## 1
Amino acid sequence: MRTSRPHFSSLNLLRYAFLGFYALITLGPFLWALSASFKPLPEIVAGGLNWWPQQFTWENYRQIFVQQPLFWRWMLNSVIIATSVTLLNLLFNSMAGYALARLQFWGRSFWFFLVLAVLAVPAQITLIPTFLILKALGWLNSYQGMIVPGMVNATFIFMMRQFFVNFPKELEEAAALDGLTRFGIFRHIVLPLAKPALAAQAIFIFMGSWNNFLLPLVILFEPEMFTLPLGLNSFKGQYISYWNYIMAASILLTLPVLAIYTFFNRYFIQGVTFTGSKG
């Protein structure tokens, strides 16, 4: 046993060195963006990889908050849309996943394979049909036009189905003996114990909705209805791009996602692990 310890120590050292190097590569662009958010525009466009601003300034953030009157409206729009989409997904994806995992009904296999088929369709292909449907409904440039198309997600229906397949049936049977209905079992027994899967789902859905750029670009056309990612695009002109403002706004854009991840972090790893162990 003593002769094998140096081997495992060297292997662990190599593994941690590789992970550390990968972390630096991953964090590098973010750290540079954070540094650039405190630089004036001439210093950014001058090039170079100086990680610390030579002319440190808060002017970029002040300009965003003071000189861009629609920034707070863009922030509000993003909060309303991302929060609504996340909550609706948590509800509907969980209900659909539970039905596919536990309920016996005609066509269950068909609906499950339909969910799998939707997973193979890139989201970009559905943009034009989505636009035409929303136009027919009169929902262009509206909150419902941004929320309704994203209130269910086939990926997370499948994910919740995988979680509920592994859920112990004994707990549901005991609850049924105590007189709970199927909905009561789902509401009072299943959902409270599904926090890891729900937390992982909430992180991914909120992050995807918060950073969504393509759908707002297609259906939103009034600046007052822009979300933050779409609003950031207004800092790019035909002849000049205000990268100092873009970097500052991008840092502010990441803060809610970091807050959501921090809040749900203790459930995140459990949720990812539990939803992939059984088919």
## 2
Amino acid sequence: MKALFIGGTGNISLSVSRLALYQGWDLYLLNRGIRETKVDGAHHIRADVYNNKNLADSLRNHLWDVVVDWIAFTEEDIERDLELFRGKTKQFIFISSASAYQKPLSHPIVRESTPLFNPYWQYSRDKIACEMRLMKAYREEGFPVTIVRPSLTYSTVIPVALGGWQEYTVVDRMKRGKKIIVHGDGTSLWTITHAEDFAKGFFGLMSHPQAIGQDFHITSDELFTWNQIYQMLADAVGVPPNIVHIPSEFICTFDPEQTGNLLGDKAHSVIFDNTKIKTLVPGFQATIPFHQGIRGTLAWLDKDPKRKWIRPETDMMMDKIIRAYEMLRAL
């Protein structure tokens, strides 16, 4: 079986790349080649998918069983993919986002039938538009699309709401005993999924004939409050967390860039029903608990100080928000 991954070396996709190779797939990775990660056994096509006039020529002589675009974010990206892969692949998998689901939710259980609607986050609205365009291509011309929606999936990133992801800022604050912000009262529910667990479900969809024209989310079944998530991170770091609870709306007033991240995503309790992925991929089960998986992430970060990106702007903004909120509370 022959697959093309556009991207393929990122936080989520690297685990899928490694699993596909382990399972004997003939895997091609198309990317700019700027990441330090090398994927042994894969064929590498070095190109910038956003700006490469010769891209079509590079792919012209290939036919694919599966194409996955890990880095498509806009309808323009999708139009490019449609032009490149019409008649060239048996399956095209689009990586959407679980943040595309209805915000706020009208029902706490999220299924693939949950409406797609997010008035808070342009990123999510763009993903929805991509999904709509691809499903139109499926209905009108039989373009063989499968849509996958990850939700806060981690391997090389810190999966918390503020000061994390590609940043090490929240961990640095913990180590220095500084206050960290947990949005709301910390009791809303969330799910965090390790990339290796995600890969097991995702790989089961690759070249699956019943996945064509379908959408799936793939998550762990673990449920935690945000208080528990930050506590487990602090336990892995080896320090007690100095938590300040601040309403999401207050945070977004001071830092509007967090509106999508919080009001459009993490401020709401989310419980994913994974029946659909388990139906097509029997035996799929997330087996890496967060309290263990995050220790692996921190160990990976410890291997290279350059990976520990502490963003001064985030650090200062968190101090500013905390001071303003504590002054308000003191009135």
## 3
Amino acid sequence: MSITFDNLHLQVGGFALSADFTIAKGRKVALLGPSGGGKSTLLSALAGFMDVARGRILYNGQEITDLPPAKRPVTLLFQDHNLFPHLSVEQNVGLGLDPNLRLSAAQKQVVAEALARVGLHGQESKHPAQMSGGQQQRVAIARALLRDQPVLALDEPFAALGPALKHEMLDLVAEIVDTTGATLLMVTHQPEDARYIADETVLIAEGTAHAPRPTAALLDNPPAALREYLGA
């Protein structure tokens, strides 16, 4: 169940990005490159929040280019995690099951199990303001779990966290994708994060998203565009 960007071309004003490669099922892939290079743009196109100027996006050989976001096999988690402050933790996570929040007893149990899986057992009645940044990220991950999509896309969700907490969150994500068999695409500006979690890394620079390469090999012997970004 691969993801293929087939001669994809994205255009936003004067900015353009091209991608032409495949990501195999179950891989953990970092998107790395300079700010404004197009990392978030590529994820937005994959998730259906951006129109494609040319080319196709395929999942498991089936074209999804024109599908609306709700019909795509992708869960996209943003840096600000999009929790609603007036809703409880249970309600925020329950949105992954029912946007109208008419949760049955069985659905509430599913929510509780998702929260337990991310280490928040018994936190259902709290509100986001009562939780730490790391706990809020766990709530967002629990909601993403309930969407149960085969592609998990993370747009710098842990950028504001300290190193220890970030590693804890990366370990949690890795455990989830390894258990579910999901494919992970994660935007990061930090090469150490890519090295920590990603099997492969896509360098996005100078208008091109390059085909994924093994992370360690890419970072140990970076091409010119990556050397310039890293200051090496």
## 4
Amino acid sequence: MSREEISFTDEQKRVLDLVQRRFPLEVRPYKKLGDIIGVSEAEIINHIDGLKRNHIIRQISAIFNTSALGYKTSLVAMKVPSSDVEEVAKVINEYPGVSHNYLRPGSYNLWFTIAVPPYESLEGVVEKLRKKAGSHPTIILPAVKKYKLAMVLDVIGEVSDLDEDEDEYPRIDARGKFEPTEENIRIVRCVQEDLPLDPRPFSVWANNLGVTEDFLLQWLISMDKKGIIRRFAAVLDHRRAGFTANGMIVWHCDKEELDSLGEYLARQPEVTHCYHRPAHPDWPYNLYAMVHGRTRDECLKIAARLTSLPSLKDYRVLFSTKEFKKIRLKLFWDYG
């Protein structure tokens, strides 16, 4: 089935909308979703199974605040001759902490995200990768401030009615501390994987971990409330879900206005991510936002609307033209 041929029933759209916003942390979560939509537990499981088999849903799992677990993360831009891009991308992708790697036209054309464990230096790891890949000019662009982190695609054009009393978007900063005990690390390694399609999926995980279902659910709820888990939800393949274009919009803004502009952009529903990143002499942009659309033109229209404020006039839209790597970051890959 090609991406253009994929279409969703109204029920599938409702399922997609609910599971990517916040998945129920309950004994029978699929039944809870069915009760909300008005269908049976078995129908929900069948819908999700079909959406996974068609690669619309990548997985349903805990999405962690990596910095709360001690990881250091950054966006990295590299200036690579077009003839070397494929080979350089392969070298970069070998590092397990690289989760996304894209080709974006421009002088800096290879863009990747990286996370390194607490005991490693972010700058040191990037430098090793840079040298191994051919010593190309590289800029490390960590988030100085995060304004929004919410990869939620508007598949039906309305707000979900699941967990109405909770914040619509995941917390940016953790409110508690993660203790890297052996048990906690084992649980993280388990719950970052895809949730089983079982009527009691948390029981399956609990049995694998050697803990009770109630203990695991309370652990997840506690980590969620502390913001150590940003949210427990589905991650979609945005292209397979119909959002075939994504643009990274970058602005050159006055430092004094960064916070107000970042907060303004974070309020816009089309924006999924928004950060203040450091400017560099040959890359002066310091405010970043990601938008997704069904077409490139739709993204450009979104960008034009977002830049209606005079302070947001100096901008560029960088489209991803090739995807070298896109995976869920697996934390504690070096554990055990």
